UniProtKB/TrEMBL annotation:
Species this protein is from: Rhodopseudomonas telluris
Pfam family, one: Aldedh
Keyword Oxidoreductase in record: yes
Segments forming domain Aldehyde dehydrogenase: 28-477
Family: Belongs to the aldehyde dehydrogenase family.
Protein name as annotated: Aldehyde dehydrogenase family protein
Keywords, alphabetical: Oxidoreductase
Positions of the catalytic residues: E257
Length: 479
């Protein structure tokens, strides 16, 4: 984990926390490293328990007025945040690339920043208008949505700024206030984002604390904190389970978007050349470090060899390198912890499967896009979420068996079906046990469609009207 460093030893920029509208630093900081080079990008403050208490208190104080602010004020705030992000797009994108590793271009850091702008603007269009359930001689009945209070947001390292926006914007749109805690691997872009938000929001509406503990002390303290009414978390299933346990005593509301091991089913009527690009980016977006990426590919025997060949040919032209290089298509794995996991899964798969391309680690944290064929359920690379640039390919002959194999995994975030017959594909997709099913694509989420997982992939949903409701209590008013 990142090493705690005294302030006097800093040899790079220190990004302060924001608490109650004020920039806050602490007695010590931790270094954030560039996964492409190992160099120090900057430093984030090492928060003390008293800093978390101060952030929660600031958010609670701000909630008194923010929760009663006119709806138009909160909508305008979302638009103002979008404008601030857009005005600083290049700065933010470069910071994401430096600390996370994804390329600036393509489906990389600038894409992430543009997504944050789009989500912020879309969230401004949502509202919590009362719904009349009955009106007449029997009485007037309304369903009212009321903001919960202080929301704790705990975000991961793979899409650090975009996921922060996914958590924070619906919270403040609904009238809640926020304490954010980013991953210690990628805190800098979120620290900068929250600083920009504080330029247009009242003090205390959005606060941020940072620590090098990952899912340890600071995250656990947030989950157990009596002053936080709800936790929204994106990350691993194991950490989500810890959050549920620590949140139980205060009966916090929870939205948990957890691990995925998404299956894609390729039927026997496809054109392998036509789907190769879509399969690749469905699996390898952000070097495979995406919860809803395609992580298991089941291919019908009739087209198995042709799909393997088409995918291999596509992968052969993919450029891996430093995200600041304009020619880079995929960056490094974001941190050593994840790199080691990917290497171990690939080494295990080599004993059983056939490496079509890749499979050998590069220098530092670079790992080439890797295809391993002839695997099956029960193999670790198939059963476990690899969260890296590796795709296992499994042959099937019977669609019923493929559906059963796809559903045998405890994860249930997303899935996809690939076929020349959309109607047949939809019939198969309807039987997949997952929160989102795509046809002839994978992983493309939208702000106007609720997103969440089934089974061990989480609780609740994000995005759209349903996602906004996750930040509210329901009250029935009868008169």
């Amino acid at each position: 984990m990142n090493q705690q460093i005294q302030q006097s030893a800093l040899d790079g920029p220190l990004f302060p926390m924001m608490i109650g509208g004020q920039a806050v630093v602490t007695g010590s900081s931790f270094a954030v490293l560039n996964p492409a080079s190992g160099e120090i990008v900057g430093y984030a403050p090492e928060a003390e328990p008293s800093d978390l208490d101060a952030a929660v208190a600031a958010a609670a104080d701000a909630f008194k007025s923010w929760s009663s602010a006119d709806d138009s004020v909160r909508a305008a705030a979302c638009l103002a945040i979008a404008d601030r992000i857009e005005a600083h797009a290049e700065e933010l994108a470069r910071l994401i690339t430096l600390e996370q590793g994804k390329p600036l271009a393509g489906i990389g850091s600038m894409f992430e920043v543009q997504g944050a702008v789009g989500w912020s603007r879309y969230t401004s269009t949502l509202s919590l208008a009362p719904e009349v359930l009955a009106s007449g001689e029997g009485g007037h009945v309304e369903k009212v949505r009321k903001p919960l209070g202080v929301v704790g947001s705990i975000t991961p390292w793979n899409w650090p700024m975009l996921i922060a926006v996914w958590h924070i914007l619906p919270a403040i749109r609904s009238g809640c206030t926020v304490v954010s805690k980013p991953s210690p691997f990628t805190p800098l872009s979120t620290l900068r984002l929250v600083a920009l938000m504080n330029e247009v929001l009242p003090p205390g509406v959005v606060n941020i604390v940072t620590g090098s503990d990952g899912a340890g002390n600071l995250g656990a303290a947030m989950s157990a904190h009596a002053g936080i009414r709800k936790i929204v978390f994106t990350g691993s299933t194991a950490t989500g389970q810890h959050i549920m346990r620590s949140a139980a005593d205060t009966l916090k509301r929870l939205t948990l978007e957890l691990g995925g091991n998404d299956a894609g089913l390729v039927l026997n009527d496809v054109d392998p050349q036509a789907i190769a690009e879509g399969l690749f980016w469905g699996a390898f977006i952000n070097a495979g470090q995406t919860c809803a990426a395609l992580k298991r590919l089941y291919v019908h025997a009739d087209v198995y060899d042709a799909v393997c060949e088409a995918l291999t040919a596509y992968v052969a032209n993919v450029r891996v390198g430093n995200g600041l290089d304009e020619a880079t298509m995929l960056g490094p794995i974001s941190n050593k912890m994840q790199f080691d996991k990917v290497v171990a899964l690939v080494e295990s798969a080599k004993t059983k499967g056939r490496v079509l391309i890749g499979g050998t680690p590069g220098e530092g944290l670079f790992f080439p896009p890797t295809l391993i064929a002839d695997l099956e359920n029960g193999d670790p690379l198939v059963d476990q979420e690899q969260f890296g640039p590796v795709l296992p390919i499994i042959k099937f002959t019977d669609v019923e068996e493929a559906i059963a194999a796809a559903n045998a995994n405890p994860a249930g975030l997303g899935g996809s079906v690939w076929s020349a017959d959309p109607q047949k594909a939809r019939a198969v997709a309807a039987r997949l046990e997952c929160g989102t099913a795509w046809i002839n694509q994978h992983g493309m989420i939208r702000p106007d469609a609720p997103f969440g997982g089934t089974k061990m992939s989480g609780l609740g949903v994000e995005f759209a009207q349903d996602g906004l409701h996750e930040y509210t209590d329901l009250q029935i008013v009868i008169s």
